[in-house]
Amino acid sequence: MSEHIITKIEINRYLQAMLGRADMIDWWWHSSNKAFDGKTPNAVYLADEEGRKRVYQYVLSCSDGQW
User: What is the DSSP string of 13-67?
Assistant: First the structure.
């Protein structure tokens, strides 16, 4: 059974719907975020599989209105 690998492409689809502009998506990835203890989403995503899951779950929850 293969494990699903969370990609930035998947996450960016949600971010595009929420933020509307490519430059805002890039800004989001590279700005500190309180949800990640001041780390950038990019740093958390790149850290390990758990980091990818954290970023993905955070974006999903925000897309569902839990800002």
Answer: HHHHHHH-SHHHHHHHHTS--GGGTT--HHHHHHH-HHHHHHHHHHHHHHHTT--
Residue appearing with tokens 């930035």: 8
- Name residues of the chain where pLDDT drops below 70: 1-2, 66-67
Which pLDDT belongs to residue 67? 58
Rg of the chain (C-alpha set) = 12
State how far the Cα of 35 lies from the Cα of 13, in Å rounded to an integer. Answer: 20
Cα–Cα distance measured from residue 55 to residue 42, given in angstroms and rounded to the nearest whole number: 9
- Does residue 3 fall inside a structural domain? no
**Does some domain include residue 1?**
no
